[in-house]
Write a structure and sequence with these properties.
The chain is mostly helical. The chain has four domains: about 5-80, no CATH class; about 85-125; about 130-185 and about 195-215, no CATH class; about 295-435. The chain has helices at about 5-15, 20-45, 60-80, 80-100, 105-125, 130-160, 190-195, 195-215, 230-245, 260-270, 300-320, 325-350, 375-390, 405-435, and strands spanning about 165-175, 175-185, 220-225, 250-255, 280-285, 285-290. A two-stranded antiparallel ribbon has the order 1-2. InterPro entries: CR006_AAA, P-loop_NTPase. This is Protein CR006 P-loop domain-containing protein. It holds the Pfam family AAA_13.
């Protein structure tokens, strides 16, 4: 029994898939043997083993046939004259690009020179300075002046000097458009004679922000003590405005004003702007050394305690080395700072930031966790009294001996332990009060005197 798989076909298939030819021959032989076995079984009636399926290469042969048909179809399409012409055109384009790439720089330079030459020729008829002056004044009046004046007036209003408005006066001088910023004042006098220093600073900040806004860029901006001479109310407006600007671009601010720093942090939190604080200090290696930590006055209670611990270690070293004068001076400074830490802990932990120095407003919702007992009063009073006894120059006068480093550490740990206890109690108090209904004594406030 044959499959008509002639030698020529076998040779062609072998070049593509040699194992397929061998498998086909094996199948052909197995098929012939099965045919003979069936004929013998008809006579003997013994059909044992004839029900086993043979492994057929039919699917593989069909897949090869489909592949060869697809290739033949592709070759038929390639013989199409229109397709051949399109391919020839594409080849010519690619060949031209290769040749152009070899002289690209020379061609680009020549095109640029020719373009520049053409522009210069077009400009020959427009070199009259009065025409340039007229067009510059027109553009400044219609575009630059109006946009800048509007931007300035918006900034002045945001910074608390909205009672002032600005207009731009423009003139041309031999092709140059000159612009002058002019404040509309009630009297014919210079701004420096009428405006306060704070108003002048606000105008300067507003002018800068207006120009930055019109530039269209997103580059960072830097301010050096932007509120050094502003009043309290305008300082808050500047903080709010700079925080809003920080949403759009990086804003770097140098300031000595802790209150302004706290305002910036609060306003930035309101608008969702990220805040990174650093301090510049003087060290042995020089001035302006960047420190990721804030000065002591800007730290919270926990970080103040950490700074005091580090200072106590330095004082202990001075004491051990016998440097009594510096040891005494540093101890006095440490107790001054310890008193500041007690004050911060009272605001931050005991009163839960209901009222916080350097922050505007009173957050009455935080009262939910406030709880003050007699022991708090006693510990705060004792800690503050001892700090006041040694802080400033008291210990340097009248022969008052300063505590040794071990006693200083005990006093620092007393504050730390009290802070931890009060914080834990405050959290429990807040949780308990939030779980139950609020209690009011006759609509008033109950005061207990001990």
């Amino acid at each position: 029994m044959a499959l008509n798989f002639d030698e020529a076909t076998q040779a062609e298939v072998a070049e593509i898939d040699s194992p397929l030819v061998a498998d086909t021959k094996t199948f052909e032989a197995a098929l012939t043997a099965r045919h003979e076995a069936i004929k013998a079984a008809i006579v003997s009636h013994d059909w044992t083993g004839l029900d086993q399926a043979l492994v057929s290469p039919a699917d593989r042969l069909q897949a090869l046939a489909d592949k060869l048909n697809a290739e033949a179809e592709a070759l038929d399409k390639a013989s199409n004259e229109e397709a051949r012409a399109a391919l020839q055109k594409q080849l010519g384009e690619l060949d031209a690009r290769v040749k152009l790439s070899q002289v690209k720089e020379a061609v680009v330079t020549a095109v640029a020179k020719l373009g520049h030459q053409g522009k210069l020729k077009n400009c020959l008829s427009a070199v009259k300075t009065n025409a340039i002056s007229l067009k510059a004044s027109e553009l400044a009046e219609k575009v630059v002046s109006k946009e800048l004046a509007d931007a300035l007036n918006r900034e002045f209003k945001a910074l608390g000097v909205g009672n002032l408005s600005v207009s731009l006066q423009s003139r041309a001088d031999r092709g140059k458009a000159l612009h002058k910023l002019k404040l509309q004042l009630p009297q014919a006098r210079s701004p420096g004679e009428i405006l306060s220093e704070g108003e002048q600073r606000a105008i300067a900040i507003g002018s800068f922000l207006a120009e930055v806004g019109l530039s269209g860029g997103k580059g960072g901006i830097v301010f050096d003590d932007p509120v050094s001479s502003l009043d309290h109310r305008r300082r808050e407006r500047v903080a709010k405005r700079l925080a809003a600007e920080a949403v759009q671009r990086q804003v770097i601010i140098f300031t000595h004003d802790i209150y302004f720093l706290c305002l910036l942090a609060e306003e930035a939190k309101q608008v969702g702007a990220a805040v990174v604080t650093q301090s510049l200090t003087r060290r042995a290696e020089g001035f302006g050394i960047a420190d990721p930590e804030l000065p002591f006055e800007g730290k919270n209670a926990s970080k103040r305690i950490g700074a005091l611990k580090a200072q106590q270690q330095a004082i202990a070293k001075l004491h051990k080395e016998g440097n009594e004068q510096e040891h005494q001076r540093q101890t006095v400074d440490a107790y001054f700072r310890l008193r500041m830490a007690w004050e911060r802990a009272v605001e931050e932990v005991l009163l839960r930031e209901v009222i916080l120095r350097f922050r505007k407003g009173v957050e009455t919702q935080r009262l939910v966790g406030v709880s003050v007992d007699d022991d708090d009063y006693a510990q705060v009073s004792a800690g503050m009294s001892k700090c006041s006894n040694y802080a400033h120059d008291k210990a340097m006068m009248g022969g008052v001996a300063v505590p040794d480093p071990d006693e200083l550490l005990i006093d620092i740990l007393a504050l730390e332990n009290w802070r931890v206890q009060v914080h834990k109690r405050s959290e429990e108090t807040a949780k308990k009060r939030k779980a139950g209904p609020p209690v009011a004594a006759g609509g008033g406030v109950q005061v207990t005197q001990s």
